[in-house]
Write a structure and sequence with these properties.
The complex is a heterodimer of chains A (about 900) and B (about 270). Chain A is about 70% helix and about 5% strand. Chain A has about 900 residues and is α+β, with helices and mostly antiparallel strands. Among the domains of chain A are: about 1-50; about 275-345; about 385-520; about 695-910, MetI-like fold (Orthogonal Bundle). Classes of the chains: A alpha+beta (about 900), B alpha/beta (about 270).
Chain lengths: ~900, ~270
C-alpha cells in the first residue's frame, strides 16, 4: 500500500505535499490567532485599568520654603512641644501667609483669600505642627515643607476635573486697561476661541429645541385627556340615573370592606331607614380593627420581652449596649400597652354598635373615616346663594357630631389607659410608670387638641346661626349675602385662629369641598355616601350625585388645565432660549458674553492671566486673575489662549484656583508623590481619605479562615475518595456532586451562608469568620478535585513498590503518594484560595458590604474585603472614585498574581526534591 | 478432566525435586477472576525452598496474575477474586487471620520496571525495615542497609552516595536497589515479575548472577519471557498457557524433553 502512495507521478505527489503543508499552516495560524486574541484582550483590560489607576497611586504635594516664625507659632518662647503641637491654626496661618505672598492679588478680597487657603489640605498644618513639635529647634529657621494639596486641586492637576484646549496666540495683541477690566484687541486673533464658543451655543440651542419638542408632545397628550374629560362631563348632564350610579360606582371602585363600602351603607341606611346592613358592616369593621390592634399589641409586647431579655443578658455580660436594649424594650412596651388600650376601646365600640341609632352610627363611622360622611352633592347642586348657608350649617353640624364623637372616644381611651396603668402596676411597675408618664400625657394632649377643634366648630356654628341682627353690619364686610352678615355678627370671643379664617361661608364650603372632593380617600367616601343615599331612594339624591360627579370632573379638568399651562410656559421658555442663543452665535462682531455657566476662556499674556468676560473675533474684554505687566502691544506667539471646558459653576475648582495651581506647577513648587494612604487608611466616604487597609485586613482574615478550614478538609476528603473509598454508586454519586458543587454560582453559597451561619448559628454578621466559612464552601470542591487529580497522577508503581515491602495502605498514601502529589495539591489549594480572594457576591449577601471604618482585629469584628471595596467604590458618585476603584483592582490583582506565582514556585520547589 | 495430565506432570516434577528441598509455597486449584472474566484455571504448583521457579508462557497467559496472588497483591485490584488455596509453610495465606501487610513483608516482590521510591538510596532500602521496626538504633539500620545492598551486589557502587536519590541510578542499579529494598525486610520468598525485561544485557547478567546467589537463602519465583534466562537461572520451570498450567518440572527436563507439544512449540519459538 505505502509503496503505491509513494509511486504517484511527480506532479500529483507535490500537489499532495503542498496541500498538507497548507493544512498545517492553516491550523498553526488558527492557534496563533486565538492566542493573539487572548493576549490582546488581556492587555487591553490591564492597560485600561492601569491607566485609570495610575492617578490614584500618586498625589500632588505643594513644596514650600517656610520661615517658622517664632512670634506666630510660639509666642511664649517656651518651645514646649505640646503647646506647639496644639497650635495648629498658627501653622495654618504660616502656610496661608506664604501662599498669599506668592499671589498678592488674593490678599485684597476675602473670598479670594478663602479660595487660596483651600488649595492645601487641612492635613498639612497638622503635619507641620507635629514635625516642629518633634524638633522645636526648627522654630526660627527656614525649612522646606511638603503640604498635601486639597483633593480637588489634586484631581485637577491629574486632568480629572476638566478638559482643556490650548490655542497658540495668532497675531499681535494690544493690551489696554480700564479701571474695571482689561481690553485686549487683535485682528482676528481670537477667532478660533470665538468659533468654539459659538459652536457650543448652537449645540445648546439644539438641546433647548429638543426640550421644546418634548413639551409639545406632552401638551398633545394633555389635550387628549382634557377632551375626554370634557365629553364625560357633557354626557353627565344627560345621563339617566342608572348609568350615572354605575359611573359613580366605577369611579370610586367600592371593594368589600373598605371605607367607601362603609359610607355607601351609611347613605343607604339614612335614606331608606334600614339600618341593619350599616350596623353589621360597622360592627365588623371595628371588630376587625380591634383584632388588628390586639395582634399588633401582642407583637410589640413580645418584642419588648425579647429586648428586655437581651438587656438583661447584656448587663450580665457587662456589655455596653445594655442601656440601648433597655430603651428599646421600654419603647416597645409603651407602644404595645397603648395599642392594647386601643384594642379594648375598639372592642367596646364594636359591642355597642348593635344598640345604636342611625345618628350615633354615623358619629361612630366618622371615627373611622375621621371626617363626617356628609355628601357635598346637595350643596354644590343647589348652587344658589340662598341654599349656601343652610348647606354650610348642615356640614358644620355634621362636623360637630363627628368631633364630639372623637372627643368622647378620646375620653374613653384615657380612662382605658388609666385602667391599664392600674392593671400594670402589680405586674410591672416600670411599664405602668412609662405608660402613665408618656401614654397618658400624649392621650391628654390629643384630647385637648380635639376639644379645641370642637370649640372652633362650635364657634363657627354660633356665627352661622340664623341672624340675630341686633348688631349692625361691620364695616369691612360687604353686606350682600345673609351668610356674610351672619358671620360678621359672630360672637366676639371667637378669636382663635381657625375660626378667624372662616370669615366667609363660601370659603368654609370651599375648604370642605377641597377635603371631600380631592380625588383621594375623602372624595370617594363622600361619593359613596351620595351613592348610598341615591340607592336608598332619598329625595333629591340623584341631583346630588350628578352634582358631585360634575364637581369631581371639574376638579380634574382644572388640574389638566394647570398642567397644560405649565407645559406651554416651559415650551415657550425653551424656544425663546434657543432663539436667543442662536442670535448671539450668529453675530460675530457683537461678542459672546461668558458667565459661570459657560466654559472659561483664559488668556496668558504679558506675565499675567486674563479671564475673558466677553469674546468676539477681534476683541476680548476680561478680568485679571494674575496681574499683567505693562500695557501695550504683545507680539504674536508670545501669548496663548485656552478654554477650560467644564463651566466654573459645574466644578469644585474655581478659575482662580486653576490659574494658581498652574502657576505653582510651572514654578516647580508642586511635586507628585506616591499615595501611601491608599494602603494605610481604612474606607471613607471621601475618596481622598479612603484606603484599602480595612479591606486588606478583612481579606487576610477571610483567607486565613478559608485556608484553615478548606485545605485539611479538602485534602482528607480527596484522599479518602481516591485511595480508600470503594468504587460503587455512592462514591460515584459523591464524585458527580463534588463536580456539580464546583459549578454552583457563588451567590448561592452566599445565600446559604446568610441562612445557616448568620440566621441559624447566630454568628456575627459581616465578620471574617462567616466570610471564611462561606468561601471555604466555594474552595472545597476546587481543592478536592485538584487533590484527586494530583493523587491520581502518582504512578501506580510507587504504590505497588510500597505495598510490596509490606507498607499498609495508610503508610503507602502518607509516606509515598501524598508527598509526590503535594505540588499538585498546593497548586490546587492556592488557585482555589485565589478564586476565593476575588469572590464578591457571597460576601455581599452576608453583609460584608457594610461601611467599615477600622480594620478588623479579629475574625469576629465587622470587616470588608478587597473585592467588596472594588464593588462599593465603583458605584461611588464622585469622579475621584474611578481611579480609586482601578487602584483597588490593581492591588487585588497583584495579590492574585502573587498567589499564583507562589503556586508556581511551590510546585517547582517541591518537584525538584525528587 | 483435561487437566488430569497436567496435574500428573506436576506431581512427577514435585517428586523429582522433593529430594532436594522442602516445599515452601504450595498452590492448590488456584483460580483467579477479574470481575466476570476468569484469568487462571485450577493452578496447582509447588515452589520449593532455596530454589528458583521460573514461570514461562506467552503474554496474557496468567503468569503475573499467579505471581501476584502469592503475596496477595491482587487484593489491590478492584474486582479481582482468588479461589483455591495457597499455603506458605502450610499456612493458608488467604485465611482471615493472615494480615496481607505482614504477608507482603514475608514475600518480597520485584517488578518489571524498576520502581525505587523518589528518596535517597539509603531511605529506599531502610523504608521497609523502618516501618516494620526491624532496627531500634541508627547503627542497626545502617547495618541492615549495608548488608542488604551488599547482598544485592550494589554496595560497592553506591556506598559513597547513599544520600543521593535512588531514581538517579542506572536501570540495572535501580533494579538491584529494589531487590535490596525487598530483602531488607528479611523475606522468605522473593517474587520477580520479569525483572530484566527493561534492562540491557550487561545489567541482566548482573541480576541473573544475583538471583543465583540469592537462591541459597530464599525461595524465588520469577516470571520471564526469556527462555534462555529461565534455563540459566531456574531449577524448576512451569509453563502457562491461556490461564492454565500446561506443564511443570525440572528446568532441564522441560527444556530438553517437554512432554506437551504446546510446551515444545513455545520453547522452540514456534508461537508466542
Amino acid at each position: 500500500m505505502s509503496d503505491g502512495n509513494l509511486s504517484y507521478p511527480g506532479a500529483e505527489k507535490s500537489r499532495r505535499l503542498r496541500r498538507r503543508y497548507r493544512e498545517e499552516v492553516r491550523f498553526r495560524s488558527y492557534g496563533v490567532a486565538a492566542i493573539l486574541f487572548a493576549i490582546t484582550s488581556l492587555c487591553v483590560l490591564l492597560i485600561s485599568i492601569a491607566t485609570e489607576a495610575v492617578s490614584a497611586f500618586t498625589r500632588h504635594d505643594l513644596s514650600l520654603e517656610l520661615f517658622i516664625d517664632p512670634g506666630v507659632v510660639d509666642p511664649s518662647g517656651e518651645r514646649d512641644p505640646e503647646t506647639i503641637r496644639a497650635n495648629v491654626s498658627a501653622f495654618s496661618d504660616l502656610i496661608r501667609g506664604e501662599l498669599r505672598e506668592r499671589f498678592p492679588e488674593a490678599a485684597e478680597d476675602r473670598d479670594l483669600r478663602r479660595q487660596l487657603a483651600r488649595m492645601v489640605s487641612t492635613l498639612s498644618a497638622e503635619e507641620l505642627a507635629a514635625r516642629v513639635a518633634q524638633s522645636p529647634e526648627l522654630v526660627g529657621t527656614t525649612i522646606r515643607i511638603t503640604a498635601p494639596l486639597a483633593d480637588r486641586i489634586d484631581l485637577y492637576l491629574k486632568g480629572l476635573v476638566t478638559g482643556q484646549s490650548v490655542l497658540d496666540g495668532v497675531g499681535s495683541v494690544d493690551v489696554s486697561r480700564t479701571s474695571e477690566a482689561v481690553d485686549l484687541r487683535s485682528q482676528g486673533g481670537f477667532a478660533e476661541a470665538y468659533r468654539s464658543l459659538a459652536d457650543r451655543l448652537a449645540e445648546e440651542a439644539d438641546g433647548r429645541k429638543q426640550l421644546a419638542r418634548v413639551s409639545e408632545a406632552a401638551i398633545a397628550r394633555v389635550d387628549e385627556r382634557f377632551e375626554a374629560l370634557q365629553s364625560d362631563r357633557t354626557e353627565l348632564t344627560s345621563m339617566d340615573a342608572g348609568s350615572l350610579a354605575e359611573m359613580v360606582r366605577q369611579s370610586i371602585a367600592i371593594e368589600g370592606q373598605d371605607l367607601s363600602a362603609l359610607s355607601l351603607a351609611a347613605g343607604r341606611a339614612e335614606a331608606s331607614g334600614d339600618v341593619q346592613p350599616f350596623r353589621t358592616l360597622l360592627g365588623s369593621e371595628f371588630t376587625k380593627r380591634a383584632d388588628e390592634a390586639t395582634r399588633e399589641a401582642d407583637e410589640l409586647l413580645e418584642r419588648g420581652d425579647a429586648f428586655q431579655k437581651k438587656a438583661l443578658e447584656a448587663e450580665a455580660r457587662g456589655e455596653p449596649n445594655a442601656e440601648t436594649r433597655r430603651i428599646q424594650a421600654r419603647t416597645a412596651y409603651l407602644a404595645g400597652d397603648r395599642r392594647m388600650v386601643d384594642a379594648s376601646r375598639l372592642e367596646e365600640i364594636a359591642r355597642s354598635v348593635p344598640n345604636l341609632d342611625i345618628g350615633a352610627l354615623s358619629a361612630v363611622a366618622s371615627l373611622v373615616t375621621s371626617r363626617p360622611l356628609t355628601s357635598l352633592g346637595r350643596v354644590v347642586a343647589s348652587g344658589n346663594e340662598e341654599a349656601l348657608l343652610p348647606a354650610v350649617i348642615e356640614i358644620n353640624q355634621a362636623e360637630i357630631v363627628a368631633a364630639e364623637a372623637a372627643v368622647a372616644d378620646q375620653v374613653a381611651r384615657i380612662s382605658g389607659v388609666e385602667a391599664r396603668v392600674e392593671a400594670l402596676k402589680s405586674v410591672s411597675p416600670g411599664r405602668a410608670e412609662a405608660l402613665a408618664d408618656e401614654g397618658l400625657s400624649a392621650a391628654r394632649s390629643k384630647l385637648r387638641r380635639l376639644e379645641r377643634d370642637l370649640a372652633v366648630l362650635q364657634a363657627t356654628r354660633d356665627r352661622l346661626a340664623p341672624p340675630v341682627p341686633s348688631v349692625g353690619p361691620s364695616v369691612d364686610t360687604p353686606a350682600s349675602t345673609p351668610a356674610a352678615v351672619a358671620i360678621a355678627s359672630g360672637s366676639p370671643d371667637a378669636t382663635t385662629e381657625p375660626a378667624e379664617s372662616l370669615r366667609d361661608p363660601e370659603e368654609f364650603l370651599k375648604a370642605e369641598a377641597e377635603a371631600q372632593l380631592g380625588l383621594d380617600l375623602g372624595g370617594s367616601i363622600a361619593a359613596a355616601y351620595a351613592l348610598g343615599r341615591f340607592e336608598g331612594g332619598a329625595p333629591g339624591a340623584e341631583a346630588d350625585l350628578r352634582a358631585l360627579m360634575t364637581a369631581r370632573l371639574d376638579r380634574e379638568l382644572e388640574e389638566v388645565r394647570t398642567d397644560k399651562a405649565r407645559l406651554e410656559r416651559k415650551r415657550a421658555r425653551d424656544l425663546k432660549a434657543a432663539t436667543d442663543l442662536l442670535s448671539v452665535a450668529s453675530n460675530p462682531s457683537a461678542g459672546i458674553v461668558l458667565d459661570e455657566f459657560s466654559p472659561t476662556v483664559l488668556i496668558e499674556i504679558a506675565g499675567g492671566v486674563v479671564k475673558a468676560k466677553q469674546v468676539s473675533e477681534n476683541q476680548v474684554i476680561g478680568q485679571e486673575l494674575i496681574p499683567l505687566g505693562a500695557a501695550g502691544a504683545v507680539a504674536a506667539g508670545s501669548w496663548s489662549i485656552r478654554e477650560i471646558l467644564v463651566p466654573e459653576a459645574d466644578r469644585l475648582v474655581t478659575d482662580h484656583q486653576i490659574v494658581w495651581a498652574d502657576q505653582l506647577m510651572k514654578g516647580g513648587d508642586i511635586v507628585r508623590r506616591p499615595n501611601t494612604s491608599l494602603l494605610t487608611h481604612a474606607d471613607s466616604t471621601y475618596p481622598e481619605l479612603a484606603g484599602l487597609a480595612a479591606g486588606l485586613a478583612g481579606s487576610f482574615w477571610i483567607m486565613l479562615v478559608t485556608l484553615i478550614l478548606s485545605l485539611p478538609v479538602g485534602v482528607m476528603a480527596a484522599i479518602y475518595l481516591e485511595e480508600f473509598a470503594p468504587r460503587n454508586w455512592v462514591t460515584d454519586f459523591i464524585e458527580v456532586n463534588i463536580n456539580n458543587l464546583a459549578a454552583v454560582p457563588s451567590i448561592v453559597f452566599g445565600l446559604l451562608g446568610a441562612a445557616v451561619f448568620i440566621n441559624f448559628f447566630d454568628l456575627p454578621r459581616s465578620s471574617p469568620l462567616v466570610g471564611g466559612l462561606v468561601l471555604s464552601l466555594i474552595t472545597l470542591p476546587t481543592i478536592i478535585i485538584a487533590t484527586r487529580a494530583a493523587l491520581g497522577a502518582v504512578p501506580p508503581s510507587i504504590r505497588e513498590g510500597a505495598l510490596a515491602v509490606g507498607a499498609s495502605l495508610p503508610q503507602t498514601v502518607f509516606h509515598h503518594v501524598l508527598p509526590l502529589a503535594a505540588p499538585g495539591v498546593l497548586t490546587g489549594a492556592i488557585i482555589g484560595l485565589a478564586r476565593a480572594l476575588g469572590e464578591t457576591a457571597p460576601l455581599l449577601l452576608i453583609g460584608m458590604v457594610a461601611f467599615v471604618a477600622d480594620p478588623p482585629e479579629s475574625m469576629l469584628d465587622s470587616a470588608t474585603a478587597l473585592p467588596v471595596l472594588v464593588y462599593k467604590w465603583s458605584s461611588g458618585a464622585e469622579r475621584a472614585w474611578q481611579p480609586m476603584t482601578s487602584a483597588a483592582i490593581i492591588i487585588l490583582l497583584i495579590f492574585m498574581f502573587a498567589m499564583n506565582a507562589l503556586a508556581v514556585y511551590l510546585r517547582r520547589r517541591l518537584e525538584r526534591r525528587w | 478432566m483435561a487437566s488430569g495430565a497436567v496435574s500428573g506432570a506436576g506431581a512427577t516434577g514435585d517428586a523429582g525435586l522433593k529430594a532436594v528441598a522442602r516445599t515452601k509455597v504450595r498452590a492448590r486449584n488456584v483460580s483467579v477472576f477479574y470481575g466476570p472474566k476468569q484469568a487462571l484455571f485450577d493452578i496447582s504448583l509447588d515452589m520449593p525452598e532455596k530454589t528458583v521457579t521460573a514461570l514461562i508462557g506467552p503474554s496474557g497467559c496468567g503468569k503475573s496474575t499467579f505471581l501476584r496472588s502469592i503475596n496477595r497483591m491482587n487484593d489491590t485490584i478492584e474486582g479481582c477474586r482468588v479461589e483455591g488455596e495457597i499455603d506458605i509453610d502450610g499456612e493458608d495465606i488467604n485465611d482471615r487471620s493472615i494480615d496481607p501487610v505482614l504477608l507482603r513483608a514475608r514475600v518480597g516482590m520485584v517488578f518489571q520496571k524498576p520502581n525505587p521510591f523518589p528518596k535517597s538510596i539509603f531511605d529506599n532500602v531502610a523504608y521497609g525495615a523502618r516501618i516494620h521496626g526491624l532496627a531500634s538504633t541508627k547503627k542497626e539500620m545502617e547495618a541492615i542497609v549495608e548488608s542488604s545492598l551488599e547482598r544485592a551486589g550494589l554496595w560497592n557502587e553506591v556506598k559513597d552516595r547513599l544520600n543521593q536519590p535512588g531514581t538517579g541510578l542506572s536501570g540495572g542499579q535501580q533494579q538491584r536497589l529494589v531487590i535490596a529494598r525487598a530483602i531488607a525486610v528479611n523475606p522468605e520468598i522473593i517474587l520477580m515479575d520479569e525483572p530484566c525485561s527493561a534492562l540491557d544485557p550487561i545489567a541482566t547478567a548482573k541480576i541473573e548472577e544475583l538471583i543465583d546467589e540469592l537462591r541459597l537463602n530464599y525461595c524465588i519465583v520469577i516470571v520471564t519471557h526469556s527462555m534462555a534466562q529461565a534455563a540459566r537461572v531456574s531449577q524448576q520451570t512451569a509453563f502457562f498457557h491461556m490461564g492454565k498450567l500446561v506443564e511443570t518440572g525440572d528446568t532441564e527436563l522441560i527444556f530438553t524433553n517437554p512432554r506437551d507439544t504446546r510446551t515444545q512449540d513455545y520453547i522452540t519459538g514456534r508461537f508466542g
